[in-house]
Amino acid sequence: MPIISLSRILAFWADQQPDRFAIDHEGDQISWRALERRTNRLARAYAARGVKADDFVTIALPNGIAFFEACFATWKLGATPQPVSSRLPRLERDQIIDLAKPALVVGVDDGTYAPTPSVPAGFMPDPGLSDTALPEQTSTSLKAMTSGGSTGRPKLIVSKAPAAWDTAQDYLEIRTRGSMLIPGPLYHNGPFLWAMVALFKGASVAVTTRFDAETTLQLIDRLKLETAYMVPTMMRRIWALPPEVRDSYDLSSLSALWHLAAPCPPWLKQAFIDWLGPEVIWELYGGTEGQGSTTIQGTEWLTHRGSVGRAVDTCEMKIVGDTGETLPPGEVGEVFIRPLAGAGTSYYYLGAEPRAIDGGWESLGDMGWMDPDGYLYLTDRKSDMVIVGGANIYPAEIEAALDAFPGVRSSAVIGLPDEDMGARLHAIVDVPGGVLDEPALTAHLRERLVTYKIPKSLEVVTAPLRDDAGKTRRSALRAARLETED
After folding, report:
1. Which residues contact 299 (CB under 8 A, 6 or more apart)?
2. Could you tell me if residue 412 is left (phi over 0), alpha (psi between -120 and 50 degrees) or otherwise beta?
3. What is the tally of helices (H) and strands (E) in the chain?
4. CB 10 within 8 A of CB 34
5. Would you call 246 helix, strand, or coil by DSSP?
6. pTM value?
7. Tens of pLDDT along the chain (486 residues)?
8. Rounded Cα–Cα distance for residues 158 and 144 (Å)
9. All domains of the chain in start order, with CATH
10. Are 378 and 193 in contact (CB under 8 A)?
11. What torsion, rounded to 10 degrees, do the Cα atoms 225, 226, 232, 236 define?
């Protein structure tokens, strides 16, 4: 099977399996034939609003069939999907729109970003528009994902991979014309990529609006799903179900369960290996930037317990010390990655610069060490980024919102351990006099931050949190609170 433009890939599979379901959203299904025709009509509606080849289209839709339709309609015009959370506060979405300068915003009322056109959630194109195939066009960029920034402003990670796919390529253990479970938010890179690659390979995709532990097991059983995407928080919640509930569903169809986006506690990974079998459990470590990654199957993990695997064959990795030296096996340092194709071949940033050293090596901000066989073991984050339930959160963005509240002199946001989410956000707020209207502050934050970025706990102090250079030592603040908790 050839490399196929994403503007034609639905037609390719619709010819082979027209009546099989392409997407199941909580029981609402669409066939490959219907998905092909509906996205042709939708693409024409987008084109009428000015979308052209290599434009960005910002997609602010929740998980569901409409999200996929918007992406494929975008690809059919040779443009690039740029997903964002449908629940983003206006201020944060405005910053992304300002950065991306899209040709169209999907999921907001028309006129919201005039003169840039918009279409609302639930938009239906004119039924008079043709649903026949459009001319083939291939965007130079597959996707443009949003990430929080260390400066407190968002950045875009724009893929340099063209919007085309080799349908014969072995990828992520996804069987051609197989099936995939996606219980995570599609505006995050992991769920987006796993879902789309499954569709590119002609696999049916089951997606949920949000994660629920028992519903996930019901879906695997009902649709006999073969591959699943999860983050450790989801695995924890499944394991917290009563054993009789967990074991009442038939999961024998599951051939690969991928977990990524956050560290997985060894006890939890061992529990899933014991439950589903080591050959089913897979882990991937890497970034949206796509410079490189590691993978490891449960069978390997049992002999390299705690490892996230070895570098895949398209990249190389090394551990670097504080003075830039390459460290030998067993020594902890910062993890650097370099694609064999060369630096800058997989992505570019809008709104940020990569953390790089000489030779084209880049860091995702993780600390770790390698054993003599090249297996990577992660130890901590070098940066202040906090991973909450698989979502990357930059404290500077939250601190900027806190500091804008009247009476706050300075603030610091840190991650503290959380049994369910892996980490929880804890805000330390410097208020001279020590009196803070917490309900008003919460309302202030809700206007500026998406829900999962709002701190779960708050601490008021009266001493400045920044030094004379304006720096905050979040690591020291975190260590002091961990010591108190102990």
Report:
1. 278, 279
2. beta
3. 13, 28
4. no
5. helix
6. 0.87
7. 589 999 999 999 999 999 999 999 999 999 999 999 999 999 999 999 999 999 999 999 999 999 999 999 999 999 999 999 999 989 889 999 999 999 999 999 999 999 999 999 999 999 999 999 999 999 999 999 998 766 667 899 999 999 999 998 899 999 999 999 999 999 999 999 999 999 999 999 999 999 999 999 999 999 999 999 999 889 989 998 999 999 999 999 999 999 998 888 888 999 999 999 999 999 999 999 999 999 999 999 999 999 999 999 999 999 999 899 999 999 999 999 999 999 899 999 999 888 899 999 999 888 899 999 999 999 877 777 888 988 888 887 898 889 889 988 888 999 999 988 889 999 999 998 888 999 999 999 999 899 999 999 999 999 888 755 456 778 788 888 888 766
8. 4
9. 3-370 (3.40.50.12780), 386-485 (3.30.300.30)
10. no
11. 50
Residue whose pair of structure tokens reads 């993978």 in the numeric block: 295
Cβ count within 10 A of residue 440: 12
Length of the chain: 486
> Tokens representing 177?
């014309």
Tokens of 123: 């938009």
